[in-house]
């Protein structure tokens, strides 16, 4: 009997070792990608993908930013008087309630998008939030306006993380930085021209005295809402799908598109995670730090946006018209410098030096604004501060995306980070209090301290990733197994 038990035990152990060897060989097979295409083929394919992925995504993202911020233009065009938004905290409630739905529905949206498909899901969201904006043009009660703002946040929640998810699935690790920057910089263009467009719409008058369509603020919502709905209707023909679903590539091009991404990510077949797997991915401790990074970026951007008009009008004594005119050049500078720095980051194949240096530039800019005396010097500080804060938004999204080996997890990372950003929007809009005027020292120093914390987090994470990469390389050289992010062959991009 004892001999039989020993024989059975040996047989079981032999089967286990054989199974482990088979699994290891399977992982090695999946982690090894044979590059059966030329650099010229890949270069042409990347250009083709660029022109298919970005145009419509940039357009609808620009529309989303116009639609969420046009309430401020409508406010000064008569909305405040007609709906009595100036009473108590009505306007603040209408502003902040947007972020609640925006924060809560980003993760569910990125769970759904892979199952339904990007074209149809995003098109549905675009049409729905366009309907919300259109509805705002016909409201007569601030409560209805607030409900529509809440729904606007729910439907807009899926676009930004979904877009980052799509971009991350199409490009290799050190191709994403400048592309996410290009995508995000479209928002700065819409932010710059949005107020001018809204002003032109507010001049529209239809009907005689007493007609509700005589109110110019209604046309801001009506025209922009209709434009968004039209964009949503045509989106299925212009938005891009995930690589495994597209039809605009030939069989050869689809093969190259999928395999070239596997070189960095070593992803296997496309996986649609279950809700349990989705929840497990959320429990990764690194997601909290990525989210905190993005929270700091978002709160800094929002807080600076609220403080900028005060700097130009009260701090420097410019008129309203001049203050509006001088608001644009810092953003032009930011767009140019952000794209240059993103290109350098991809070219050098490093993230943390660029992210930390941009945060440091933001700190210097805020200190110049706070303590310099000549208006010209303070205005120069505004250039530095806006660039330092805005440039790290796309940079941080690319950073979190690059540390994820599995495509199915990229959607979780993007949605989690942008959900933290929604909370940052709430924080950024509240840290500058009227009783702290004119210097707003608590708000300014809160922003400076958060940027210092950003540098510390980014540096610590990157040093951890560099160490993990080194250990994985040493283990591979010694013939041992050391898998990062549960993805054979994957390496972090610190």
UniProtKB/TrEMBL annotation:
Keyword Transmembrane helix appears in the UniProt entry: yes
Keywords: Membrane, Transmembrane, Transmembrane helix, Transport
Domain Major facilitator superfamily (MFS) profile, chain residue ranges per copy: 53-470
GO CC entries: membrane
UniProt xrefs under Pfam families: MFS_1
Membrane topology summary: Multi-pass membrane protein
Gene3D superfamilies: MFS general substrate transporter like domains
Residue stretches of biased makeup (Basic and acidic residues): 11-30
PROSITE patterns attached to this UniProt entry: MFS (PS50850)
GO molecular function annotations of the record: transmembrane transporter activity
Region (Disordered), start-end ranges: 1-31
Cellular compartments annotated: Membrane
InterPro entries recorded: MFS (IPR011701), MFS_dom (IPR020846), MFS_trans_sf (IPR036259)
Source organism superkingdom: Eukaryota
Transmembrane segments: 53-77, 89-108, 120-139, 151-171, 183-204, 216-240, 287-307, 327-345, 352-372, 378-400, 412-432, 444-461
Descriptive protein name: Major facilitator superfamily (MFS) profile domain-containing protein
Organism in which the protein naturally occurs: Lithohypha guttulata
């Amino acid at each position: 009997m004892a001999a039989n038990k020993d024989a059975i035990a040996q047989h079981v152990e032999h089967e286990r070792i054989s199974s482990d060897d088979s699994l290891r060989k399977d992982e090695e097979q999946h982690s090894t990608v044979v590059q059966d295409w030329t650099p010229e083929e890949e270069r042409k394919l990347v250009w083709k993908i660029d022109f298919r992925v970005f145009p419509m995504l940039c357009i609808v993202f620009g529309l989303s930013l116009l639609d969420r911020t046009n309430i401020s233009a409508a406010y000064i065009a008569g909305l405040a008087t007609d709906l009595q938004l100036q009473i108590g905290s009505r306007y603040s409630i209408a502003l902040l309630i947007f972020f609640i739905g925006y924060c809560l529905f980003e993760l569910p949206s990125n769970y759904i998008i892979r199952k339904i498909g990007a074209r149809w899901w995003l098109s549905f969201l675009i049409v729905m939030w366009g309907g919300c904006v259109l509805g705002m043009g016909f409201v007569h009660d601030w409560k209805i306006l607030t409900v529509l703002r809440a729904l606007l946040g729910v439907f807009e929640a899926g676009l930004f993380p979904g877009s980052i998810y799509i971009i991350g699935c199409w490009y290799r690790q050190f191709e994403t930085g400048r592309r996410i920057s290009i995508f995000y910089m479209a928002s700065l263009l819409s932010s710059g021209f949005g107020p001018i467009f809204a002003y032109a719409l507010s001049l529209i008058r239809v009907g005689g005295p007493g007609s509700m369509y005589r109110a110019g603020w209604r046309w801001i919502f009506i025209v922009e809402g209709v434009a968004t709905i039209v964009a949503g209707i045509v989106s299925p023909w212009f938005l891009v799908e995930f690589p495994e679903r597209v039809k605009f590539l030939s069989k050869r091009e689809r093969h190259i598109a999928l395999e070239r991404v596997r070189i960095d990510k070593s992803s296997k077949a496309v996986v649609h995670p279950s809700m349990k797997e989705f929840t497990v991915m959320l429990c990764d401790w690194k997601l909290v730090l990525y989210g905190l990074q993005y929270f700091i970026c978002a709160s800094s951007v929002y807080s600076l946006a609220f403080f900028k008009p005060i700097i130009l009008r009260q701090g420097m004594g410019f008129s309203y018209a001049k203050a509006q005119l001088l608001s644009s050049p810092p953003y032009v500078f930011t767009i140019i410098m952000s794209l240059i720095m993103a290109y350098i980051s991809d070219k050098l194949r490093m993230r943390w030096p660029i992210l930390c240096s941009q945060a440091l530039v933001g700190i210097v800019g805020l200190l110049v604004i706070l303590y310099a005396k000549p208006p010209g010097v303070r205005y120069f500080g505004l250039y530095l501060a806006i660039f330092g804060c805005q440039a790290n938004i796309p940079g941080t999204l690319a950073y979190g995306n690059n540390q994820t080996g599995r495509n199915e997890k990229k959607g979780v990372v993007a949605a989690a980070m942008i959900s933290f950003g929604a909370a940052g929007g709430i924080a950024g809009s509240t840290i500058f209090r009227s009783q702290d005027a004119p210097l707003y020292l608590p708000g300014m120093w809160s922003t400076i301290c958060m940027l210092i914390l950003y540098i510390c987090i980014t540096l610590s994470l990157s040093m951890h990733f560099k160490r993990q990469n080194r250990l994985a390389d040493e283990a591979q050289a010694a013939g041992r197994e050391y898998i990062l992010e549960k993805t054979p062959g994957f390496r972090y991009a610190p």
